[in-house]
Structures are given as structure tokens and as C-alpha cells.
UniProtKB/TrEMBL annotation:
Gene Ontology MF annotations: hydrolase activity; zinc ion binding
CDD domains in the cross-refs: nucleoside_deaminase
Protein name in the entry: Nucleoside deaminase
Classification via PROSITE patterns: CYT_DCMP_DEAMINASES_1, CYT_DCMP_DEAMINASES_2
A Pfam family assignment: dCMP_cyt_deam_1
Keywords of the record: Metal-binding, Zinc
Coiled coil region boundaries: none
Source species taxonomy: Bacteria, Pseudomonadati, Pseudomonadota, Gammaproteobacteria, Oceanospirillales
InterPro entries, per the entry: APOBEC/CMP_deaminase_Zn-bd, CMP_dCMP_dom, Cytidine_deaminase-like
UniProt keyword Zinc, yes or no: yes
Amino acid sequence: MFSFSLFKPEAQLELSDVDARLARLSQSGYRNGWARRLCELALQARREGNYGVSALLCRGDEVLLEATNAVFQPHWDSAAHAEMQLLNCWERSVVEGRFKARELGALSLVSSLEPCPMCLSRILMSGVRHIYYLAEDPQGGMVTRARHLPPAFRNLMQCTDHGPLRVDSGYSKLARQLARHGLAQLRERLVAQGQGGQAL
């Protein structure tokens, strides 16, 4: 039986309270706008039965593309982290002619939770050079542990601007709580899937 070391307990987030909490947070400045949208999307992902994580691809203050975690719903997909979904959408958009591939280096990828090793590796290989997140992930985040990346990826990381997004701290707290919501049950489903069980 797998045992995960979970975060320190904090007050359980009630998903029904999120809209009211968002209404109380600052809406000034485009970065707070990004943060608000990330929290709205993370809430959507959680309500759909997935991890409460989301990501945006932005040009200046304009949100070009958005994505949510979709590991469990609509079907099991272990690679369907929000950042992976976002980059899949970007690459489809390039093929369709909506964007030019060379534009990516000037865009910002912003996620509600610090990217994991899989996502950070893909982000770096994609050519994204501006990587931000609302909440650190001490259990699985890789940006804060970039010094442990293999040399080729450390070199790519040195070409990036990265770190926490500077926004109203209430957004960061809410993003962290959304990412942690139902985490124990979701991890049990993840382990069951790996052992040949069915994702519910």
C-alpha cells in the first residue's frame, strides 16, 4: 500500500465558497486578472473530478489559451496535467495557423500550481521562456528544485524568467487550497489506476 506524505492540515476548502472569496480579492492589474482566471479554471477542474490545477498562455495582458487538469475526466490520461494540455493546445493552434511557433518564446506560461518535473521538462523543451505560478508545490514542484535537473535542462532553465507570480496573496492561498482539495482521494485513485484498477 502506498502512503503519501500530505501537507499540513488546514481548514477544508468548501468549493461552494470559492466564488465569494474571489469576489473579495483585488481585480486591479492584469496579473491579478490572470490569477482570478486561474482560480476559476482550477475550481472547474476540481468540480469535474480532476486535480484543481489550471494554466494560461499569455501575451502581455491578453490570455491566448487556457487549460485545466484532466487526468481523471473525461477519461484516464496520466499526462493530462494543465500545462501539458495547454502546450498540446498551443501546438495544435500552430498547425492550424492561428499562431506562429516562434512566438512562444515571448509568451508567458502561468499555472495555478508550480509545475511538476514532467511539465517543467516539456515547458523548457517547448521554448517557453517566461514561467510563473501562483502557489509553490513543496511535494511535487520542480521550478524551486531546478538545480536538481539534468545539465541540459538546467541550461534551458537559465534562459528563463521564472518564479511565483506577484499578485494579491489571497489568490496564491486559494490556488494552493484548490490544488490540495480532495488530494488524498485523488492520489488513491492514481495509485489504484497504476495497479490495474479503474479510475472512477
